[in-house]
Write a structure and sequence with these properties.
It contains 13 helices and 15 strands. It is α/β, with parallel strands linked by helices. It folds into three domains: 121 residues, Roll (Vcp-like ATPase, Chain A, domain 2); 225 residues, Rossmann fold, CATH 3.40.50; 87 residues. The strands form four sheets. A seven-stranded mixed β-sheet has the order 9-8-7-10-11-15-12, with helices on both faces. Strands 2-1-6-5 form a four-stranded antiparallel β-sheet, with helices on one face. α1 packs antiparallel against α2 and α3 packs antiparallel against α5.
């Protein structure tokens, strides 16, 4: 297979631009993202082609394709009338002229994409697909393993490029995408100087050792979920790196048809009863006593009263040349106790449990004081007692002047009325005294806001205030108990002899 024929995934190599027929992520807010498979065709009900409609406006795919990642995409004015007219036209064509008119109309719309005009409703950011962004916007079919959990799991399992990992309970595929990125060291069958298949060395006449590519073996009991996961992985270009199998691993185990599959180095079990699957994760056939101790016949339909190991030739799904690390994902402590008990019976070591409690911290500078009045992100309350007393004096002073002017105005009205009764001309009070009182007033709210805006140009807000932080009020991560263990490598007399000869 040539490098050009390999279907490269945007999750592993997105490139500098958003390409057609690949996945792109539209970020509306920090935790609100929309996935979209970008299409340049006009096979849509809109004249502008395929459109993503959001609360911040409409975004035709033609305005997104070939834009660099991180670009701010402005909303566009979409002709929704063309959508209704097209539907009506297709309906009349189907009734009057048959299917040929409908097909001709569809072909015509595919050729012509109307250029969209920019709107003022809002914008989104175009970000490349990653396991982290995909976790936040994937369609939920089951509970999701979020980033704080799967990042710690992969680190504890010591997953690295070229490893093979078993995942039981694929669900929505969140952990699957993260595991693919961790094991990726090239596409299977890709031939180049760094990453090639087995080939003949012309100088020595020997076959060079084939490079082992990383692979994820994903098992899912629910058939519709397994098919949906296969479809998503194919759209994302990861189908060559993930083997999805619809199987009940409690009964049928993890071995596949290939001789060296799965040959796993790490295992992740997201199952309701992980202890029932552990009997299939051994290096040798279990004795009847051990098999019965770790089996749960009540949970399986048509299971014998006394479970016995299979008589078929034994195959281990584990890599015989390395220690195997496992993690189980269980929401209840009762599941943990049963899993740990089964692990001890089967020879797993270094058993431990971890609970991930991830919280997001909001860090900001807290600015308090009357000088913050009218500014965003600040508390305009008095910072000290002196500021509070001064503000009260200003309010009382303005109130005193206001009531004094009101009293003088009433007295002037009464004098004018008495003068009219006597037939005399009312004497006008000089305005100088009134103007002097107004000038001596403390600044009004409008004056304070204007002064704060003028002072803002000279201030360095990034240095002012007290640095504070707080935890997010709502936790959105799905936390569970993570049980980790290690199964040592099998060591025989032959291995001991080889090591003794090699190392003396």
């Amino acid at each position: 297979m040539s490098p050009s024929s390999v279907n490269r995934s945007p999750f592993l190599d997105p490139g500098p631009y958003a390409a057609s027929d690949s996945l792109g992520i539209l970020q509306l807010r920090r935790d609100h993202l929309i996935p979209a498979v970008l299409s340049a065709s006009a096979d849509s009900d809109y004249a502008e082609g395929k459109v993503e409609n959001t609360r911040f406006g409409s975004f035709p795919h033609s305005t997104i394709i070939n834009k660099p990642w991180g670009t701010q995409i402005l909303a566009s004015v979409v002709d929704t009338g063309s959508r209704g007219a097209k539907n009506k036209k297709r309906k009349r064509g189907a009734e009057d002229e048959g299917e040929a008119t409908t097909g001709a109309d569809t072909d015509d719309t595919r050729k012509n994409v109307v250029k969209a005009a920019t709107a003022s409703s809002g914008f989104v950011h175009l970000v490349p697909p990653t396991p982290e962004t995909w976790t936040l916007c994937l369609p939920h079919r089951t509970q999701v393993v979020y980033t704080p959990d799967y990042s710690y799991i992969l680190q504890r399992l010591r997953v690295r490029p070229g490893d093979r990992i078993i995942e039981a309970g694929a669900g929505s595929g969140s952990f699957t995408h993260a595991a693919v990125r961790a094991i990726f060291n090239g596409y299977p069958g890709e031939e180049n100087a760094t990453n090639g298949t087995e080939c003949h060395d012309g100088e020595t006449g020997e076959m060079r050792k084939r490079k082992r590519h990383g692979q994820v073996y994903s098992f899912e009991y629910h058939a519709p979920r397994a098919e949906q996961l296969k479809t998503e992985l194919k759209e994302h270009g990861l189908n060559s790196l993930v083997t999805v199998t619809n199987r009940d691993v409690y009964q049928d185990g993890f071995c596949l048809d290939g001789e060296d599959e799965p040959n796993a180095d790490a295992i992740f079990l997201d199952l309701p009863a992980p202890w029932q699957a552990l009997k299939h994760l051994t290096r040798s056939r279990l004795s009847s006593a051990v098999f019965q101790s770790v089996s749960d016949p009540a949970s399986a339909e048509n299971a014998p009263a006394t479970p016995q190991p299979s008589d078929a030739p034994f195959r281990s799904p584990l890599n015989p040349n390395s220690a195997i690390r496992i993690c189980t994902f269980s929401p209840c402590i009762e599941q943990v106790t049963k899993t740990v008990s089964a692990m001890r019976s089967l020879g797993w070591l270094e058993i431990g449990m971890v609970e991930i409690m991830a919280k997001r911290l909001e860090v900001k500078r807290e600015r308090v004081g009357l000088q913050e009045e009218g500014l965003r992100g600040a508390n305009p309350s008095p910072a000290t007692v002196q500021e509070a007393v001064q503000r009260l004096r200003d309010v009382e002073g303005r109130a005193k002047v206001f009531h004094g002017l009101q009293k003088e105005k009433q007295e002037e009205i009464m004098r004018k009325a008495e003068a009219r009764k006597r037939g005399e001309k009312a004497v006008k009070i000089k305005e100088e005294g009134k103007a002097g009182k107004l000038e001596s007033l403390p600044p009004s709210k409008q004056d304070r806001l204007e002064r704060a805006k003028r002072d803002l140009e000279k201030r360095e807000l990034f240095k002012e205030g007290r640095l504070v932080h707080r935890t997010e009020p709502e936790l959105k991560t799905h936390t569970s108990y993570l049980v980790f263990a290690v199964l040592p490598r099998a060591w025989t007399k032959e291995d001991e002899e080889k090591a003794r000869k090699k190392w003396g």
